[in-house]
Design a protein that fits this description.
Layout: H1 2-17, H2 19-39, E1 44-53, H3 58-61, H4 71-81, H5 85-94, H6 104-117, E2 119-122, E3 128-135, H7 138-195, H8 197-200, H9 206-240, E4 246-247, H10 259-278, H11 284-310, E5 313-314, H12 322-403, E6 407-416, H13 425-450, H14 457-464, H15 478-516
Length: 517
């Protein structure tokens, strides 16, 4: 600790020996400081206060009907992003600041300076904003603040309109897209229904349809067996009444007809006419009757051919026997009924087989149908939601154009302070004096290090490493003492003059400020 104190004292002694260098440096720095401070241009501050009212009577009434964004958050973001390069470039053109920029580099420097000088302050959550700018020319500062206020208000309204237009455009594009998708889904669903009409019409009751078809088939088979039994009874009765063949010369008039077959064909044709009045040509009863008629006609041709080969065999006509004629007519009707029932059974069997085979495909068809319905429902739901959103967006835009996004109220219009707000010369002058003193001490210290001297014997011994026997003190006479005193007085006079100069400058600035106030 003693060594540290000794080194400090030695350093101070060296600085004191070079005090004249320090005094000269202090004066030079002090004069330069006064000159710089007094030559600094005055800057005037222009400011304006704006209150943004985001509350509206219409907003709670339209809650849940129209889209209402968080206006407070939008205004807060706007205040933080207002001082952007595009906005500042626009501000420079509005305030005619770009007239002095001859080159692109000048314009960039101007924009950078404006971005550093413009300020937007907010008072907590009250939506009260203060816009300020400082410039050497009061009128120019006022123009800049006026332009900034205009940009602030226009950005709040313009951005909202731009957002609304963009949202409406996007929603309309999505509606058109979903409308096409919905039409395609409807076409696919329609084609699927047309293609699988029989299968998908009653898909949930398909097994009931199979059961019903099986029941109808069994009933038709039962009716067919009953009709066949009745026909067989008639055949047996007719065979018991069949006349005996007589060997006679053939009659040319009887070779072209077979009475029992002709009567059956006539009865079947009458039955066919009645069936065609009720059903179409594809009906199973009609088809079966036509088939029986064709078989009887073929049988008639075979019978005539056999008679011609027999060479004269001829049946005795039984037309005169009414019982036999009635049996033949009943047999004909029974054959027609059997043929119709047989055709019906065949048709029911085909339908039953078709339903049974289709039942294997029904789960896959039901799954595909459900998928198509689900896709269609999703597309329809999204489409209806987008249409609803479009109406809400349009209503929001109308509400915004009616009430505005927010009410921008000018609390304090742009004004310029009557006196400059900077530089604060009354603060800078004492700082400059302190800087001058510190620079003087620094110069003295540097000079003492450049031209060092030995202050005591220990310094010589420490530096050379040689033993020191002792030291010789300087004995000053009266003249030397008087000269030393004069030099000391001159030094303090110079130092005091520096303080007096700064004091005079402070007094001058204070009087000037008081006079302007």
């Amino acid at each position: 600790m003693d060594e540290v104190i000794r080194q400090v004292l030695l350093t101070l002694a060296g600085v004191w020996r070079k005090r004249w260098y320090g005094l000269l440096a202090a004066w030079l720095v002090g004069i330069a400081g006064i000159f710089v401070i007094l030559s600094m241009p005055d800057k005037y501050e222009a400011s304006a206060r704006i209150y943004v009212d985001t509350q509206s009577v219409l907003r709670p009434l339209m809650s849940g009907i129209a889209v209402q964004p968080n206006v407070d958050q939008q205004i807060a973001i706007l205040s933080r992003t207002l001082i952007s390069r595009p906005n500042v470039q626009r501000l420079a053109r509005m305030a005619d600041l770009d007239l002095g920029a001859k080159t692109k580099e000048d314009m960039e420097r101007l924009v950078d300076g404006l971005m550093n000088s413009l300020e937007i302050k907010t008072a907590g959550r009250d939506n009260l904003y203060t816009l300020s700018y400082r410039d050497t020319q009061p009128e120019r500062a006022k123009r800049v603040v006026q332009s900034l206020v205009s940009i602030f208000v226009e950005s709040g309204i313009g951005d909202k309109r731009k957002d609304s237009d963009s949202a409406l455009k996007f929603i309309q594009e999505q509606i058109s897209s979903y409308e096409k998708k919905l039409e395609q889904a409807e076409d696919r669903l329609k084609d699927f229904k047309l293609k699988n009409m029989n299968l998908s019409e009653e898909g949930k009751n398909y097994f009931a349809r199979i059961s019903g078809a099986g029941t109808k088939l069994k009933d038709a088979q039962l009716e067919l067996r009953e009709a066949e039994d009745s026909r067989d009874v008639l055949k047996r009765e007719l065979e018991g009444e069949e006349p005996v063949m007589l060997s006679e010369a053939p009659d040319s008039g009887s070779l072209g007809s077979v009475p029992e077959i002709d009567s059956r064909i006539d009865a079947l044709k009458r039955n066919l006419d009645s069936l065609l009045l009720r059903y179409t040509a594809q009906h199973p009863d009609v088809v079966g009757t036509k088939k029986v008629i064709a078989e009887l006609e073929d049988q008639k041709r075979q019978e005539l051919k056999a008679r011609s080969k027999a060479g004269g065999a001829r049946m005795i006509s039984a037309g005169a026997d009414p019982v036999l004629q009635q049996l033949r007519m009943s047999l004909t009707e029974a054959d027609a009924n059997v043929a119709a029932l047989h055709a019906r059974v065949t048709e029911y069997e085909a339908r039953f087989d078709e339903l049974r085979n289709a039942a294997k495909q029904q789960p896959e068809i039901d799954a595909e149908f459900s998928k198509m319905n689900r896709d269609y429902d999703i597309q329809k739901k999204n489409y209806e939601a987008l249409v609803s959103r479009r109406e809400s967006a349009a209503m929001s835009e109308q509400m915004g154009s009616t009430t505005g996004v927010a009410d921008f109220r000018m609390i304090d219009p742009p004004r310029v302070s009557p006196k400059p707000v900077e530089p604060n010369r009354l603060l800078f002058l004492p700082l400059a004096l302190l800087g001058a003193l510190l620079s003087g001490m620094g110069i003295s210290f540097v000079a003492s290090q450049i031209w060092p001297v030995f202050i005591d014997c220990r310094s010589v011994r420490d530096l050379t490493g040689l033993p020191v026997l002792g030291g010789v003190s300087l004995l000053k006479d009266q003249t030397s003492v008087r000269q030393e005193r004069h030099r000391l007085m001159a030094f303090f006079a110079g130092l005091g003059g520096l303080f007096v100069s700064y004091g005079a400058a402070l007094l001058f600035l204070w009087l000037a400020t008081a006079r302007n106030t």
